C-alpha cells in the first residue's frame, strides 16, 4: 500500500508514525510485524515498533537517514510504499537448479531455535568443529577459535544475559566463534573469516541431522562483555557469533529464496 508519512526526530531517534493500523491492514493480530518499504526509490526492511492502541512507527537507521539526505531538524513529508515482508515463494520464478548433497544442505539450512534433550556425541561435535576450521580466511591467517560448551548451567547463564539467546534453554550445546585480533589485525577481515567459519559450522550441523542458529555478538554490547567474562576470553580475542545447536524439535521448510532482483549481471 502507499501512504504519506512525516519523518521526524524524536529525541535521538528518527521515526515516522504510520497513518494506519498495520495489524488490521496486514491481518496480523499479534506478534512482530516485519515490513518491506520503499521511500524515494530506496528499499529497506524493518520491524514496526508499537506505541500501543494500534499505533505503530518506523524507525530510521543512521545509514537510511544519510541515504535519504535528511538534515538535522528537518521534517520530511514523503510517500511510502509499504507491504508485509513475507517470503512469497509463489512469485519467485525458480530457475533450473542443479542438485547435490552439499547444495541440498545449503538450501535446506534454517535457523532452529528449539531442541530435544538428546545429547550430542563427541564424534559429531568434533566433525562440526572440524568443518569450522576448514573455512577460508584472508591471507590464510585462520584467526578463528571456537569455545564449545555442553554445560547446561553455563548456557542458562547466557540466556539470562541476552533474550536473543533464549534458545540456549533447550540447546544441547553452544559454540562461541571467536576471532584473534592479533592474528588478523584488519577488523573487517576478522569478521569475514569468522563469519565464514560460522556458516561452515551451521552447514555441518544441518548436514548431520541437527539444527542450530547463529546469534550475533555486537561489539561493545552487554552481551559481548558478558560472553567475554563468562568464557574468560583474553583481551585479544573477540567473540563474533554464538551458535546454539542440538537435535531439532521443530521442522522448518525453507521457501524459494531465488530473488532475481538481488542478482546483477555485468553491472548493478
Ligand atoms: C549476523 C547474524 C546475527 C543473528 N542474530 C540472531 C540472534 O541474535 N537471535 C536469533 O534468534 N537469530 C539470529 N540470527 C538468525 C537470523 O534471524 C536468521 O538467519 C534469519 O531470520 C533467516 O532465517 P534462516 O536462518 O532460517 O534462513 C542471526 C543471523 C545472523 C547472520
What report would you give on this structure?
This protein is α+β, with helices and mostly antiparallel strands. The chain folds into 2 domains: 2-84, AF2212/PG0164-like (Elongation Factor Tu (Ef-tu), domain 3, Beta Barrel), CATH 2.40.30; 101-246, NADH Oxidase (3-Layer(aba) Sandwich), CATH 3.40.109. 27% of the residues lie in helices and 28% in strands. The chain is built from 7 helices and 11 strands. The chain has helices at residues 22-26, 62-68, 101-108, 122-133, 152-161, 187-207, 222-230; strands at residues 2-10, 13-17, 34-39, 42-47, 49-52, 55-60, 76-84, 144-149, 173-180, 211-216, 237-246. It has a 7-stranded antiparallel β-sheet. The chain has a 4-stranded antiparallel β-sheet with strand order 8-9-11-10, sandwiched between helices. The radius of gyration is 21 Å and the shape is globular. The relative contact order is 0.14. The mean pLDDT is 92. It binds flavin mononucleotide. Flavin mononucleotide (FMN) binds at residues 110-111, 113, 164, 213-216.
Amino acid at each position: 500500500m502507499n501512504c504519506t508519512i512525516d519523518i521526524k526526530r524524536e529525541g535521538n531517534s528518527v521515526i515516522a508514525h504510520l497513518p494506519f493500523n498495520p495489524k488490521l491492514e496486514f491481518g496480523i493480530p499479534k506478534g512482530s510485524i516485519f515490513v518491506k518499504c520503499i521511500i524515494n526509490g530506496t528499499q529497506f526492511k524493518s520491524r514496526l515498533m508499537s506505541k500501543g492502541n494500534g499505533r505503530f512507527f518506523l524507525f530510521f537507521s543512521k545509514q537510511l537517514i544519510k541515504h535519504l539526505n535528511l538534515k538535522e531538524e528537518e521534517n520530511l513529508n514523503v510517500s511510502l510504499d509499504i507491504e508485509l515482508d513475507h517470503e512469497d515463494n509463489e512469485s519467485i520464478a525458480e530457475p533450473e537448479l542443479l542438485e547435490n548433497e552439499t547444495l541440498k544442505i545449503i538450501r535446506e539450512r534454517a535457523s532452529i531455535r528449539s531442541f530435544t534433550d538428546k545429547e550430542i556425541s563427541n564424534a559429531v561435535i568434533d566433525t562440526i568443529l572440524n568443518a569450522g576450521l576448514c573455512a577460508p580466511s584472508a591471507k590464510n591467517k585462520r584467526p578463528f577459535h571456537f569455545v564449545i560448551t555442553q554445560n547446561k548451567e553455563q548456557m542458562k547463564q547466557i540466556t539470562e544475559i541476552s533474550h536473543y539467546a533464549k534458545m540456549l534453554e533447550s540447546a544441547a550445546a553452544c559454540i562461541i566463534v571467536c576471532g584473534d585480533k592479533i592474528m588478523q589485525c584488519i577488523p573487517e577481515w576478522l569478521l569475514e573469516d569468522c563469519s565464514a567459519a560460522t556458516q561452515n559450522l551451521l552447514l555441518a550441523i544441518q548436514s548431520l541431522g541437527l539444527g542450530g542458529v547463529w546469534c550475533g555478538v555486537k561489539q561493545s554490547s552487554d552481551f559481548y562483555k558478558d560472553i567475554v567474562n563468562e568464557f574468560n576470553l583474553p583481551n585479544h580475542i573477540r567473540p563474533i557469533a554464538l551458535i546454539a545447536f542440538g537435535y531439532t524439535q521443530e521442522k522448518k521448510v525453507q521457501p524459494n529464496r531465488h530473488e532475481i532482483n538481488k542478482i546483477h549481471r555485468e553491472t548493478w
